[in-house]
């Protein structure tokens, strides 16, 4: 049974225990419903109240929502604040000041604690170093860093001086960095000499050098290099400085630069349905409000919690629930440098026990791979560790299949901890549809109900509501503070991608299919409806991988990429390739397939490597020359073709492509 089919027949319900309800911030469904009613009856009043209660403004806002330039919505537009001050300075003089902000565990298991006070000093000093490099409010700075305190310091320091950061995940290639430097017009890059993952030292600076050598990067004036390891790396005189050099002589006090609520806090690139990644631009005020408030609501954060979000700062989850949300909420959080399987696949459980983690937030793909590991090696099963400190579990990034949900619930949460299956996107800035641990009865595989103020719905392609029980497209009908503001440098694409005219131009189109339960109204996400794949919780555009393949011009004539279901990674990348030479078979096909995989890894990053590569003399096309992707999807799944193929230019090609190479 497919994951989606098994979700559709799911009927187990897990209500929160009475004790959990009693102790929760949002206590029981009536409290949730009251908040929803408040948002419905006085939308602006609701958000104004939350904006005042959760954010410190250097200049209070008087406007709440400005729709005059819709769909370019503005929130709290005349207010001023600083995001870093809201994460750090705010706690000075409160009990949080001396509390541990970050417990860092390195790849090799060394632990360092950083208090809020120390973090503030480090961010201040780094902010001064950035200013000394000539970096100013409004400048764009690329951050290409390993997981660790320094990455968070770099992001916070940018925010402190009003520079807009654009974090690039450490697994992305030189080409990807190059694209982002050009698109963002970055003036500086913050990176590390190496990163440590699974006991291996991997070069980061070398990839930055390669990106800068690709040309057109004159905007980049400086590169700051964190020396994560003692191994030297290439340094370019006049351009590159180590952190130690840059920080030398800099004081730890740096006045946070007040910025307008709509000032771009960051740009984060994500895959869309064309070849070019989209620079999702976020605001400061609305974004910060939601990352802080969802810490309180979705994770029901308490002062004594130890919060652990396993996401890398290179993804939106690492922005909202590592770099900003936990700090704004005054939490103590664990940051982990390494990978879940090193030195053994029980590392996560071991770390939860060692640090007494109480809130654990990870991706379904990690859970599935750890289930597999525990099934083959009893020594890494979670039951080898004491996980009693856990109070709340969460998932993010992709639909979780009920089997994995049940395993997580039983074996990690001891049937005691609510699981918050949080649906959201780079574009939404924070959670939008999710259970509340002290209110929502849970159904495995369902992200349940929208957060108060989030007007989620399911509609057809004209924007008309679809009754519960039938599938359609997920939309959000009203703006919300942490929503994407635009695509950096491409407002037209923003409008077309997210507020299509065919639907009236005012509904936010998420790009996911969904269905609501006929009785409960619970949402179930059925997956992307555009050309975006979700592989291990990472978004990949099929067009992006196709462009990477055809850019190997000496070999590839044509390529089409589709997804197919995969037990471990959710979806897997499947590429159909026509070569410029004759179609290879046997060993030779394997060898060329490997060559192409490595090529894609170099062009985009290892996460984009196609799992399957099939070669054909041609691709199935309509007479007008359109590639029939739905047929390719069926072939990729190994299904019998039952669709009508009479409009195909070359029906014979299907048999050839169906043969595995
Ligand atoms: C936060 C994040 C967004 C896409 C989204 C959807 C999928 C995320 C999900 C989920 C089902 C969940 N997705 N959370 N699908 N249930 N709880 O992952 O952002 O990288 O932009 O990906 O991920 O398809 O559209 P991002």
Automatic annotation (TrEMBL):
Keyword Cell division belongs to the record: no
N6-acetyllysine: modified positions: 626
One Gene Ontology cellular component annotation held by this UniProt entry: cytosol
Residues of the AMP-dependent synthetase/ligase domain: 97-480
Alphabetized NCBIfam families for the sequence: Ac_CoA_lig_AcsA (TIGR02188), PRK00174.1 (NF001208)
Cofactors demanded by this protein: Mg(2+)
Amino acids binding Mg(2+): 550, 556
Domain AMP-binding enzyme C-terminal: 544-626
Binding site for CoA: 197-200, 317, 536
Binding site for ATP: 397-399, 421-426, 512, 528, 539
Annotated Acetyl-coenzyme A synthetase N-terminal domain residues: 32-87
Post-translational events: Acetylated. Deacetylation by the SIR2-homolog deacetylase activates the enzyme.
Annotated family: Belongs to the ATP-dependent AMP-binding enzyme family.
Protein name: Acetyl-coenzyme A synthetase
Catalytic activity, as annotated: acetate + ATP + CoA = acetyl-CoA + AMP + diphosphate
Keywords on record: Acetylation, ATP-binding, Ligase, Magnesium, Metal-binding, Nucleotide-binding
Keyword GTP-binding: no
Protein function: Catalyzes the conversion of acetate into acetyl-CoA (AcCoA), an essential intermediate at the junction of anabolic and catabolic pathways. AcsA undergoes a two-step reaction. In the first half reaction, AcsA combines acetate with ATP to form acetyl-adenylate (AcAMP) intermediate. In the second half reaction, it can then transfer the acetyl group from AcAMP to the sulfhydryl group of CoA, forming the product AcCoA.
GO molecular function, one term: ATP binding
GO biological process entries: acetyl-CoA biosynthetic process from acetate
């Amino acid at each position: 049974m497919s994951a989606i089919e098994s979700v559709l027949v799911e009927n187990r319900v897990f209500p929160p225990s009475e004790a959990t309800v009693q102790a929760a911030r949002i206590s029981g469904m009536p409290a949730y419903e009251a908040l929803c009613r408040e948002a419905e009856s006085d939308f602006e009043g609701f958000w104004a109240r939350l904006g005042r209660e959760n954010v410190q403004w250097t200049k209070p806002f008087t406007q709440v929502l400005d729709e005059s330039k819709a769909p370019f919505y503005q929130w709290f537009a005349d207010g001023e604040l600083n995001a870093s001050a809201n994460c750090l300075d705010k706690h000075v003089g409160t009990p949080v000041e001396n509390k541990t902000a970050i417990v860092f565990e390195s790849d090799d298991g060394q632990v360092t604690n950083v208090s809020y006070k120390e973090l503030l000093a480090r961010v201040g000093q780094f902010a001064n170093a950035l200013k000394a490099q000539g970096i100013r409010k409004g400048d764009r700075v690329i951050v290409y860093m390993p997981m660790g305190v320094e990455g968070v310091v770099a992001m916070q320091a940018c925010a402190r001086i009003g520079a807009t950061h654009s974090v690039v995940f450490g697994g992305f290639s030189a080409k990807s960095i190059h694209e982002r430097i050009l698109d963002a017009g970055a003036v500086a890059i913050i990176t590390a000499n190496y990163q440590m993952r699974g006991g291996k030292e991997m070069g980061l600076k070398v990839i930055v050098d390669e990106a800068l050598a690709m040309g057109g990067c004159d905007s980049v004036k400086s590169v700051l290099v964190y020396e994560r390891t003692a191994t030297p790396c290439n340094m370019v005189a006049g351009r590159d400085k180590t952190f130690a050099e840059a920080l030398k002589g800099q004081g730890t006090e740096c006045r946070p630069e007040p910025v307008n609520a709509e000032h771009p806090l960051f740009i984060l690139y994500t895959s869309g349905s064309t070849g070019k990644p989209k620079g999702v631009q976020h605001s400061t005020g609305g974004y910060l409000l939601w990352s802080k408030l969802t810490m309180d609501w979705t994770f029901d954060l308490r002062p004594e919690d130890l919060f652990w979000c396993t996401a890398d700062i290179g993804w939106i989850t690492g922005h909202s629930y590592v770099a900003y949300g936990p700090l704004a909420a005054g939490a103590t959080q664990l940051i982990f440098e390494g990978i879940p399987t090193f030195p053994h696949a029980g590392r996560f459980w071991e770390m939860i026990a060692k640090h007494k983690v109480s809130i654990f937030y990870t991706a379904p793909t990690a859970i599935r791979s750890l289930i597999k590991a525990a099934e083959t090696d009893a020594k890494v099963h979670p039951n080898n560790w004491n996980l009693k400190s856990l109070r709340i579990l969460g998932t993010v990034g992709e639909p979780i299949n009920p089997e994995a949900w049940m395993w997580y619930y039983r074996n990690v949460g001891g049937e005691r901890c609510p699981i918050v299956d949080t649906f959201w996107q780079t574009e939404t800035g924070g959670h939008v549809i999710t259970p509340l641990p002290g209110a929502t009865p849970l159904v495995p595989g369902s992200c349940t109900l929208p957060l108060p103020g989030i007007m989620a719905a399911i509609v057809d392609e004209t924007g008309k509501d679809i009754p519960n029980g039938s599938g359609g497209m997920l939309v959000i009908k009203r703006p919300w503070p942490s929503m994407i503001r635009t695509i950096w440098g491409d407002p037209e694409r923003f409008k077309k991608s997210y507020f299509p005219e065919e639907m009236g131009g005012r509904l936010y189109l998420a790009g996911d299919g969904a269905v609501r339960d006929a009785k409960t109204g619970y949402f179930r996400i059925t997956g992307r409806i555009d050309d975006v794949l979700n592989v291990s919780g990472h978004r990949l555009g099929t067009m992006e991988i196709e462009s990477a393949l055809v850019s190997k011009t000496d070999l590839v004539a044509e390529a089409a990429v589709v997804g197919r279901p995969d037990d471990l990674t959710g979806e897997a990348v499947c590429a159909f390739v026509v070569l410029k030479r004759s179609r290879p078979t046997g060993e030779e096909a394997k060898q060329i397939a490997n060559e192409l995989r490595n090529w894609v890894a170099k062009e985009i990053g290892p996460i984009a490597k196609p799992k399957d590569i099939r070669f054909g003399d041609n691709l199935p096309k309509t007479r007008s020359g359109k590639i029939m992707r739905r047929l390719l999807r069926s072939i990729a799944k190994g299904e019998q073709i039952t669709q009508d193929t009479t409009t195909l230019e070359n029906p014979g090609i299907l048999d050839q492509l169906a043969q595995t190479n």
